[in-house]
Amino acid sequence: MRYMLMHKLDENQPGAFDPSPQFLERLGAFMGEAIQAGVLLSGEGLEKSSKESARITAEKGKTTIIDGPFTETKELIAGFALMEVRSKEEAVEWGRRFAELFIADGIDVEVDVRRVNEGPEPA
Fold this sequence. Notes:
It contains 2 helices and 6 strands; from the N terminus they run βαββββαβ. The chain is α+β, with helices and mostly antiparallel strands. It is flat, with a radius of gyration of 16 Å.
């Protein structure tokens, strides 16, 4: 089963998009462990919304494009990890451990764990 873990941060929280060297070291160890376990398929962090971003909204047949920063949004997707795991519980455990990296730096984070739609279930 594939799951996507997406973490959300508040751009206005100090340190949220400017990680400390200690955070980067812990993150590297965490990612290395996920790679060694064979569960990490892909993962990246994202820049602040003030850095070359846009939001496209399609509503009632009308498309609107707004350049960043997105000041009206408190929590923005700040990165993702695509994982191949055996269960939702395993994905949640990786997500919980990931959230602890931020807790150690005093940064509030929200991690969504979502199953990837891989098409119809086999019969």
